[in-house]
Design goal:
By secondary structure, the protein is of the alpha+beta class. The chain has six helices and six strands. The model has no long low-confidence stretch (mean pLDDT 88).
Length: 147
C-alpha cells in the first residue's frame, strides 16, 4: 500500500505479517521500523494495544526471535576471521590476537544470551536447582500447618 507523504500508520495484516516475520528472524523492532515502508515504533505499540491478534502474533515472533539469536550466537562464536591482526614491528610482521574484536564478539554473544533468556526463559533461561543434595526441599509451614 503506497503512502504519499509519510510512513504507513494504518494497520494491515500484510504490514503486521512483514513486521513479525522480520522480528522472528531476530531483527529488532527498532531496525524493522527504520525502513521507509514500515510504521514507526509508536505506531506498532499502538497496534499492539488496539489489535489483540497483532499482540499475539508479535509475542510469538519475539519468542521465535530467541531461536534466531541462538543461531547468531553459534555464528559469532564460530567466526574467528577478525580475531587476528597483523602488527608491524620494524621489518617484521607478527600476527597477534585482536583483543578488541574478541571482546566485542563476547559482548555480542552475551547480549544475545541475556535477551534469549528473557524472551524464552523455559528454553534459554537459567535452570534453578530446587533441591538440596538431590533431595526435595521441605514444604513451607504456615501457622503451624504445611501447605
Amino acid at each position: 500500500m503506497a503512502h504519499a507523504g509519510g510512513r504507513p500508520s494504518e494497520y494491515t495484516k500484510e504490514t503486521a505479517d512483514k513486521i513479525c516475520h522480520q522480528l522472528s528472524e531476530g531483527i529488532s523492532l527498532r531496525t524493522v521500523c527504520l525502513a521507509d515502508d514500515m510504521p514507526d515504533k509508536q505506531t506498532v505499540f499502538s497496534w499492539m494495544r488496539k489489535y489483540p491478534e497483532f499482540l499475539d502474533q508479535y509475542a510469538r515472533a519475539k519468542e521465535e526471535s530467541a531461536d534466531a539469536m541462538a543461531e547468531d550466537v553459534l555464528a559469532i562464536a564460530d567466526e574467528s576471521e577478525n580475531d587476528w591482526i597483523d602488527k608491524q614491528f620494524g621489518k617484521t610482521t607478527v600476527r597477534v590476537i585482536d583483543n578488541e574484536a574478541v571482546q566485542r564478539s563476547k559482548l555480542r554473544v552475551d547480549t544475545r544470551k541475556w535477551l534469549m533468556s528473557k524472551m524464552k526463559p523455559k528454553k534459554y533461561g537459567e535452570k534453578l536447582d530446587l533441591t538440596s543434595d538431590g533431595k526435595a526441599l521441605p514444604s513451607p509451614i504456615y501457622n503451624g500447618k504445611s501447605k
